[in-house]
Write a structure and sequence with these properties.
The protein is mainly β and about 375 residues long. The chain has helices at about 65-80, 100, and strands at about 5, 30, 40-45, 50-55, 60, 85, 90, 105, 110-115, 125, 130-135, 145-150, 155-160, 165-170, 175, 180, 190-195, 200-210, 215-230, 235-245, 255-260, 265-270, 275-280, 285-290, 295-305, 315, 325-330, 330-335, 340, 345-350, 360-365, 370-375.
């Protein structure tokens, strides 16, 4: 599930409600998945240069719009026609220096830079992985990218190819805001590209990069951060399956815990679930689970599976009336991720009761409840 930014392309649909309390009304977060990070903070550059928000990561899922409003919004989009020049919301992660955020880093191979923001334009240059180009931003935005949406739904950005020659890049295969996760062996490198899309979302694309940018490969749309095994031979992450859950009242997809080989060529699904944490000492992965691989509801709880993908079982099932998601106005909000405490061999997990109050459960690695507190 990607994080939906209301109106990064200058258009908020009629059915979108105001954002969470404390956010300015011109910046509405439909789905803040893209901002979730286990330890990080959020920096969002708003349309007003003076507006800069910092806050804890929040995970929200917007309730679906009524069908009539969806149709009305689609009709309004269809009437626009022509080029749409938009001021984007620039998302920059705390790991990235400000100077890096002003560069367009090429991820894919043979990415064409064109003379104009349309697929039929002449090619100025074929960019190669690892090259970077200065982003030509809007003058009042202090270098923030100017995104351009064409009639085919492609999103473009303008870059400086040479001193006297600008060019245009499609946003797939190029990164402005990103996170980097190096292998314990130093090679390869995983890059999470925070890519804005034409439908108003920011998706987290996982790319595999070989040392020296000799080869690159786009692996998946993920949530959170990839986790490397200590020996550097594999990594795991939470992947969006793009399969909707059976509950049609919630605009949500089935999430999987996938394990990749170090070269990214092989992968296997450990289980459906979210917020995975790795315990290498025991060879186990712990995660929240409330739907199965087909999107059918199961009793919510903290589950565990071996790093080899077997012995899937619940470690601790939530008491009746508790769940990981709660409805909050026009949003579903998920409880924070679990926390492993290796020194005490305990895990803290979070859930909401019937009244929407958050509770913290502390359990042992054998699944015994140690403590239940209102959080």
């Amino acid at each position: 599930m990607g994080g939906n930014l209301a109106s990064p392309i200058g258009e908020a649909s009629e059915c979108r409600a105001a954002g969470p309390p404390g956010l300015p009304q011109h910046l509405v977060i439909d789905n803040a998945d893209a901002f979730r990070h286990a330890t990080g903070k959020i920096w969002v550059a708003c349309p007003r240069p003076t507006c800069l928000l910092q806050g804890p990561p929040v995970r929200m899922m917007r309730l679906p719009c009524p069908p009539s409003q969806r149709l009305e919004s689609h009709a309004n989009r269809s009437r626009r026609g022509g080029w749409i020049f938009v001021l984007s919301v620039l998302l920059a992660h705390f790991r990235l220096p400000a100077a890096e955020a002003a560069d367009a880093l090429i991820l894919g191979s043979n990415v064409p830079i064109l003379q104009a923001p349309r697929v039929t334009a002449a090619t100025v240059k074929l960019a190669q992985p690892g090259e970077s180009y200065e982003v030509i931003g809007r003058k009042t935005g202090k270098g923030q990218p100017l995104y351009i949406l064409d009639e085919r739904g492609n999103l473009w950005m303008k870059v400086q190819v040479s001193d006297d020659m600008p060019g245009y890049l499609r946003t797939d295969g190029v990164s402005v805001a990103r996170e980097e996760f190096g292998s314990p062996k130093g090679n390869p490198l995983l890059i999470v590209n925070l890519r804005p899309t034409a439908d108003g979302t920011v998706v987290r694309e996982l790319w595999w990069i070989q040392e020296g940018w000799q080869r690159t490969r786009r692996l998946a749309i993920i949530e959170g951060r990839p986790t490397w095994a200590g020996n550097g031979e594999w990594f795991m992450c939470q992947v969006d399956s793009e399969r909707p859950i059976k509950d049609q009242t919630v605009d949500r997809t089935v999430e999987r815990i996938d394990r990749f080989s170090a070269d990214g060529r092989s992968r296997n699904t450990l289980s459906a679930g979210s917020y995975p944490i790795l315990n290498e000492a025991r060879g186990e992965v712990y995660f929240y689970r409330d739907v199965d691989e087909q999107g059918e509801a199961v009793r919510p709880g903290l589950f565990t599976v071996s790093v080899a993908g077997n012995n899937l079982h619940p470690l601790f099932l939530l008491p009746e009336g508790y769940r990981f998601w709660k409805e909050d106005g026009d949003y579903f909000v998920q409880a924070p991720s679990p926390t492993l405490h290796p020194s005490t061999n305990r895990i803290s997990l979070y859930a909401f009761d019937r009244k929407g109050k958050r509770a913290r459960f502390t359990i042992t690695l054998e699944g015994h409840l140690v403590e239940l507190l209102s959080d």
